[in-house]
Amino acid sequence: MTQSAKIKIAIVGASGYTGLELARLLATHPQADVVAVTSEQNPGVAYDRFFPGLRGFVSPHLTLSAIGQKDQQGKWPGLDSLLKKAEVFFTALPHGTSTECVNYLYEKGARIIDLSADFRLKNLEVYEAWYGQHTAAHLVPEAVYGIPEFHRADMKKTRIIANPGCYPTSAIFALAPLLKHELIDTKTIVIDSKSGTSGAGRTAKQNILFSEISEGIRAYGVAHHRHTPEIEQELSSLAGHDIRVTFTPHLVPMHRGILTVAYGQLKDLKTDAQILELYRAFYKNECYVRVTDELPDSRNVRGSYFVDLSVRIDARTQRVIAISTIDNLNRGASGQAIAGFNLMMGFDEGLGLNHPPLLP
Amino acid sequence: MTQSAKIKIAIVGASGYTGLELARLLATHPQADVVAVTSEQNPGVAYDRFFPGLRGFVSPHLTLSAIGQKDQQGKWPGLDSLLKKAEVFFTALPHGTSTECVNYLYEKGARIIDLSADFRLKNLEVYEAWYGQHTAAHLVPEAVYGIPEFHRADMKKTRIIANPGCYPTSAIFALAPLLKHELIDTKTIVIDSKSGTSGAGRTAKQNILFSEISEGIRAYGVAHHRHTPEIEQELSSLAGHDIRVTFTPHLVPMHRGILTVAYGQLKDLKTDAQILELYRAFYKNECYVRVTDELPDSRNVRGSYFVDLSVRIDARTQRVIAISTIDNLNRGASGQAIAGFNLMMGFDEGLGLNHPPLLP
Amino acid sequence: MTQSAKIKIAIVGASGYTGLELARLLATHPQADVVAVTSEQNPGVAYDRFFPGLRGFVSPHLTLSAIGQKDQQGKWPGLDSLLKKAEVFFTALPHGTSTECVNYLYEKGARIIDLSADFRLKNLEVYEAWYGQHTAAHLVPEAVYGIPEFHRADMKKTRIIANPGCYPTSAIFALAPLLKHELIDTKTIVIDSKSGTSGAGRTAKQNILFSEISEGIRAYGVAHHRHTPEIEQELSSLAGHDIRVTFTPHLVPMHRGILTVAYGQLKDLKTDAQILELYRAFYKNECYVRVTDELPDSRNVRGSYFVDLSVRIDARTQRVIAISTIDNLNRGASGQAIAGFNLMMGFDEGLGLNHPPLLP
Amino acid sequence: MTQSAKIKIAIVGASGYTGLELARLLATHPQADVVAVTSEQNPGVAYDRFFPGLRGFVSPHLTLSAIGQKDQQGKWPGLDSLLKKAEVFFTALPHGTSTECVNYLYEKGARIIDLSADFRLKNLEVYEAWYGQHTAAHLVPEAVYGIPEFHRADMKKTRIIANPGCYPTSAIFALAPLLKHELIDTKTIVIDSKSGTSGAGRTAKQNILFSEISEGIRAYGVAHHRHTPEIEQELSSLAGHDIRVTFTPHLVPMHRGILTVAYGQLKDLKTDAQILELYRAFYKNECYVRVTDELPDSRNVRGSYFVDLSVRIDARTQRVIAISTIDNLNRGASGQAIAGFNLMMGFDEGLGLNHPPLLP
């Protein structure tokens, strides 16, 4: 296939880590051609000077532009000029501000993979309780929650993919077999997740300085993190009834990686071997999910698209402990977005994603 | 008080991190004089060459000796020579091997703060289920589990203190007010702990190389960690009935620090303010326990003796989330051992321990 | 000595890492009473909430105040109110802005240890070439460059100490014996220094986020770092003639520590043993300088006031390689400032500074 | 090209980081088929259980074997069985022990890329002064020192490539333009290099434990590191006369990356712009060398094959400061070995190596 036949892509919001990860992965994707990148703060900067590590992987002429705002006539020049260049848009804008942009692009016929939280929650009441008013509620039904392993068929048919959050992705993979097989008392689910700092973004904030992160660990957003309803939506769907969970995220002194440990009370005691076999069977057709005897280590997925999973029984308390790990920027954000793009365009789901992890 | 009046101390097992931390803290303790240090692998090495950072804080004549073994006549020359020099022994030997040594020292009239797990579990059946046969079972009743805040009176009267494990210390502080006040269903306790790597020791092992730890997180010992029965013993004692918990430890890429997040189902819903007030009241006389509105950060206790604590309610699930953090080497091991020494000798509990944390 | 007899101290600029390190060290200094702390950005915040790790070590009533600005009548209310409370001022303001503040305090009779660069350079032309115009040039002769080992006598007699920079401190200790003994060709000096990130400050900047620092190393300020003339001033003074050096700083993914490797061409070849002996002799009366056979490791001074030093000969090229390490916040900033305070007040030089390093 | 047409490869010594990096990179190399991996310590272990991160990238049937030793009849069964399977051998054995193995394989007609130091030094006297006796000296002339940018033509024609050391690679790129253009006094070269810990290997050693590395920096091998003669050989060749350098390596708390800062006295003063232009011209045909205006950051090459370079003039001392950075495992070891394989086999030099760096 010639260069000209590649899909023209715009990354809207390319100055953060998810934008960088999209650019990194798309640089070697055989069907992608990133033709536009945007940043409201850094218009005019060549992208390979903005991220010098990308030199040689993006055109030296690829330059950050600003999308600006919609004008009073309802036109949005910054997006219109992108629409002339690109047919698929990865929108990685701050949660909330992306709604209007996605709506505009959708109206103009574009295909969108949205990395914000705006189109993930199907229940508007829930959305508004956690995020405030929704400005493009009519699009919510069209958007498909983009975990291929759970929504593959729908992802192939939509023009908007709501790319899942990093914590929800890890939690859903850990708990899905238990819920699908109705093995646990769904009132007893506790999800304890640990994330690297790239999940906290690239904006200069004192509390994520190296000197404030290294050699320490802390929980945050306890009992109030916005990924909670997203986790609950997908778990409820798997279980067939409404589920509420306790979810605790932590910040760990590392760049990449989420390790999620999920706890639940078993209805009937199982052995480690039985539960592992059940997980293996559940994911047996999924080549990007690796169920292992050994406990997962986030290092084994760093830089890769894999979900590594294992599970144990605490026989003394009849509790199951499911452990998953993903790279928060790859499977937890940009990699999964590209899988969504692949499905939407009819490509092989893992095209451009099949990289081994960087070890060590 | 003159130099000669200080208490003569031997550190038996001084080549690891707990030994180093004892030496570091005792170096500026006004009543302590470390007169002997031992290491089976490094006899004859001056201690300030073994740990060059200690140069100037220990005598250049303080040299590592080996304790060797008991002979066939039941004499133990390596310990006998220590008994001539020292009156108090901090034993930081590998779990199991320290039993015989402690027994010998005790028989000879010494005072012992034992940092192994050998004398922590009061129920011998439990001990043997987790550790194997006990070779000095008759001493177990004499040993006092050494968290000052919970066993202060007994610690003052004993000649053997069983210094608590790092994870149990953090978990017990987090959960004690809930159990004492009977606020939670004790069948629902989940304890998820994250530790720095110094807890894994100083012995050369491939899985704790920098290149195998940095930029990663992993759980280990899931459902089987030996600190579980120790946590259960103390929580059961606080609750007044037998409790079983699920306990999951993790290894985090940092030197020092444990962050423990403990979950339990509340019998009656409370507010954050109510539960915080209850915690504050519970620890109000304890100057080394800091109950804070803010969520704890392990960095705030690094190098110090403090326990930092906070607690939250997840109203949506009626669950309480108690979070504690300690320095695993200081409060989680050597600092608490020194508090035990202080109590045993009639000194002020915090003598030599009142250092601010090292930030950043 | 009673509490009331302690010296009342104000830390002007207490929200950064040098301020925090001053507070940490002064908290256990037997003659210091920190009565005021300032921050222009955070007035009104209790200091032990601003730095929760300090809880229990500073009064809960110690609250950050703003110093504001001098008014048109030449009065400075923010400083006047401090002058009523405190007699000694540690000024840790951004370089340049502190000049006027120091001048005002000096005029009012206060004693000042200034942690900025404003009073370090004795040659005004040099100062202005690197920093711009000096607004209190008349005070420069009064200020004493505050490395006790080299300016002890003068430090005892002054009311202004210009506290040295972190890199210069490490470089001067490494090279002093070579220059004093005229062992090297002074045109051949290359100084290659590596620093932890706390030296880059606590202000939110993107390039010092954890995600931008961890797992990387970079040089910065190559051939243009402002510590160059400060190093040259002191080395020239030791050599008795003007010296120019090449100085390259680096940012290393760690909190604390500077390792400086200094190179020079030997006039006459020496052995390792000879040069080590010469260093030992040079520093033989200095208890906070540890000359060791082993190569220094920055970890061995972390959190401490020590300078660790060693030196090697590259016989093949007749070059000497002198290596020093310090804690950039302690000996490289706040610890040395407290030594200056001690000397100025007639206390023992190391009062409150004799802490062992935190290992690991 | 079909699967069967790929080149059959054996990795002899596959349990360390260079072996892992070879396996990682070859897993997605379009012309490589790794058919054998060896480890003397772990025979019989499936390679994707040995390195679980590789699961899905190597055959589940690829199992570590031991090569054992040559027997008294001069047969080497362990290698003979490999020779039946593979035609190209990457030998990543400890320096010294690989000599005999390479010799045996060469005699049997195999092609070899040797990652040890054994065939790098062309002058046997120099080799023996630094490494001891050479047991296959007759092969040294046949071996080509494998930096493509400097020895491309010879690499295409040989059956043995001596893969360069990590430090030498970084130093040679930094200094080559200066030497080729005779811009510096070659008696003044100082090379100060900083490396991540993966360069220290994967063998369990106490001094590279996380707890002994994190939060610290130290120099090692000062004036005696074995990469010195290797650097000198190549620099001498570029200069056309014998050169001796001072070389100082450091261990930095990060996985991957080397930053080398090289200093030299300019014969004639140049500007930054002039020297940068000269570097750009020197490397203008090399697509894996990125000469940048900005100072290099090791993070920008992590996981990649690139050499990033910049250069500055210290006009005050007429010194040039050349800075290079590479990934020590990729360009500094396994990546460059694969480039050597590519050249040897007639493939495109960068085949399978054109990956962007992993950021952050």
Give a concise summary.
The structure is a homotetramer of 360-residue chains. In chain A, 30% of the residues lie in helices and 21% in strands.
Secondary structure: elements and pairs:
4 copies of one chain form a homotetramer.
Chain A: E1 7-12, H1 17-26, E2 32-38, H2 47-50, E3 64-65, H3 77-85, E4 88-91, H4 98-107, E5 111-114, H5 124-131, E6 144-145, H6 148-155, E7 160-162, H7 166-180, E8 184-195, H8 210-213, E9 218-219, H9 227-239, E10 246-251, E11 258-266, H10 272-282, E12 289-291, E13 307-314, E14 319-326, H11 330-345
Parallel strand pairs in A: 1-2, 1-4, 2-3, 4-5, 5-7, 6-7, 8-10, 12-13
Antiparallel strand pairs in A: 8-11, 9-10, 11-14, 13-14
Helix pairs in contact in A: 1-11, 7-9
Element-level helix/strand string of chain A: EHEHEHEHEHEHEHEHEHEEHEEEH
- Calculate the mean pLDDT score of chain A and round it: 97
Give the largest interface pair and sizes.
A-B, 49 and 48 residues
Sheet with most strands: strand arrangement of chain A: 3-2-1-4-5-7-6
Radius of gyration of chain A over alpha carbons? 20 Å
Oligomer: homotetramer
What sort of overall outline of chain A do the alpha carbons produce when their principal axes are compared? globular
What is the fold-level CATH name, i.e. the topology of the largest domain in chain A?
Dihydrodipicolinate Reductase, domain 2
Tell me the fraction of residues in β-strands of chain A, as a range. 15-25%
CATH architecture of the largest domain in chain A: 2-Layer Sandwich
- First-to-last CA distance of chain A: 35 Å
Number of structural domains of chain A: 2
Instruction: Give the fraction of residues assigned to helices of chain A.
Output: 25-40%
Number of DSSP helical runs of chain A: 11
CATH superfamily annotation of the largest domain in chain A: Dihydrodipicolinate Reductase, domain 2
